[in-house]
Amino acid sequence: MEIAKIAQKAWAKTPLWKRAELLHKAAAILKEHKSPIADCLVKEIAKPAKDSVTEVVRSGDLISYCAEEGVRILGQGTFLVSDSFPGNERTKYCLTSKIPLGVVLAIPPFNYPVNLAVSKIAPALIAGNSLVLKPPTQGAVSCLHMVHCFHLAGFPKGLISCVTGKGSEIGDFLTMHPGVNCISFTGGDTGISISKKAGMIPLQMELGGKDACIVLEDADLDLAAANIVKGGLSYSGQRCTAVKIVLVMESVADALMEKVNAKVAKLTVGPPEDNCDITPVVSESSANFIEGLVMDAKEKGATFCQPYKREGNLIWPLLLDNVRPDMRIAWEEPFGPVLPVVRIGSVEEGIHHCNASNFGLQGCIFTKDINKAMIISDAMETGTVQINSAPARGPDHFPFQGIKDSGIGSQGITNSINMMVKVKSTVINLPSPSYTMG
Ligand SMILES: NC(=O)C1=CN([C@@H]2O[C@H](COP(=O)(O)OP(=O)(O)OC[C@H]3O[C@@H](n4cnc5c(N)ncnc54)[C@H](OP(=O)(O)O)[C@@H]3O)[C@@H](O)[C@H]2O)C=CC1
Ligand SMILES: O=C(O)[C@H](O)COP(=O)(O)O
């Protein structure tokens, strides 16, 4: 913490163009090393090989975009004059600029250890902050290699410190440390308790989700089915933005389920090295939790579209039809390849289910009627609503935010940079009013 504080003071005096130049360099080095880092992701978190490479490349692009965006938005401040407020003459000129916060504590989750670390590191650095990064325990090796790319690019010593260790053991020390000036966290409910313990500092929390997919009678069912399978089951459902419940109008439910099940049958299941679609979930406790949700739904009468199959941490993809509100899976996020389907009699029923959730990350609607889609989007209490596509965080410059238990603050490149600065004003007071004549 002390080193981070010292390094930040010097970094804040580094010209903006130079900070951007170093970030571009780090992005290029990261992309050059995409294969070994992706290999780590495959081994550590069982992400399919192709998706692991995509995560590293996307992270490089994010760093470069952040450098460009930072140069644009941090180079600008505001200039205000006093006579626009009643009772004032033009005697005061107010100059505001965006200045760094200090030390940013970044805590990403296991499912995107590289990308969700970089999405905190790059905005913090371009804005003149230093970082203490606590990587997820599963994903720590990938994170260390990624941070090494920043060091190879020439970032000064101490500017980015990577502190490994179990969150349950070192988390409180870090999050309650008086030297921390901002916390950017992505993960589960832990974020809620961190918010309660943290001091009076800016917090960016991206937490869980129960993203609903509402399918209307006039939807393109092929498009909806493709998005349900990709959105719900890619990386075995271990994405905060995964489709986590399908709410389909009864009249098209059979037709939709036929298409979805046909696609599920084609998914490959196995090791991440073989680039299988469905790979083992991250831990035994996670697999046990998912199994608990499945068994609860079985006892309460859900229809199993596929047989339930599990070998160790590998769970075969499973659609549960005719899910009812008394089943846990209707509300809890499995973070696994199991997707509940609720048949609804009206759009209002779908919106009501979506809004009754304690989460409010994203949601999606499938319909050909844009007017209807807009009304439903306005009624859904989520940070983002996607029309005719599955929920997603990217592209990474789009705003990304959750409401209710899904988080506080907004991410996305521009919002993250703006969140990692504070506003500083300098007011020039003139002895007498001065009005510009040209
Ligand atoms: N909204 C979003 O953008 C995203 C949300 N998520 C949500 O995250 C959850 C799954 O991810 P998972 O990694 O298991 O989430 P966790 O909340 O368990 O962990 C997230 C990070 O917090 C750390 N951590 C754990 N305990 C503490 C603590 N007491 N103090 C500080 N840090 C701590 C973890 O370290 P360690 O690994 O050592 O335990 C990890 O680095 C799901 O609920 C999912 O929805 C996931 C990704 C994105
Ligand atoms: O951690 C997550 O799950 C992400 O923030 C989701 O990102 P994605 O929509 O790009 O997969």
Automatic annotation (TrEMBL):
GO terms for molecular function: glyceraldehyde-3-phosphate dehydrogenase (NADP+) (non-phosphorylating) activity; lactaldehyde dehydrogenase (NAD+) activity. Its EC number is 1.2.1.9. GO terms for cellular component: cytoplasm. It catalyses: D-glyceraldehyde 3-phosphate + NADP(+) + H2O = (2R)-3-phosphoglycerate + NADPH + 2 H(+). Keywords: Cytoplasm, NADP, Oxidoreductase. It is found in: Cytoplasm. Residues 2-425 form the Aldehyde dehydrogenase domain. InterPro entries: Ald_DH/histidinol_DH, Ald_DH_C, Ald_DH_CS_CYS, Ald_DH_CS_GLU, Ald_DH_N, Aldehyde_DH_dom, ALDH-related_metabolic_enz. It is an enzyme of class 1 (oxidoreductase). It comes from the Eukaryota. The active site is at residue 206. Belongs to the aldehyde dehydrogenase family. This is NADP-dependent glyceraldehyde-3-phosphate dehydrogenase. It comes from Punica granatum.
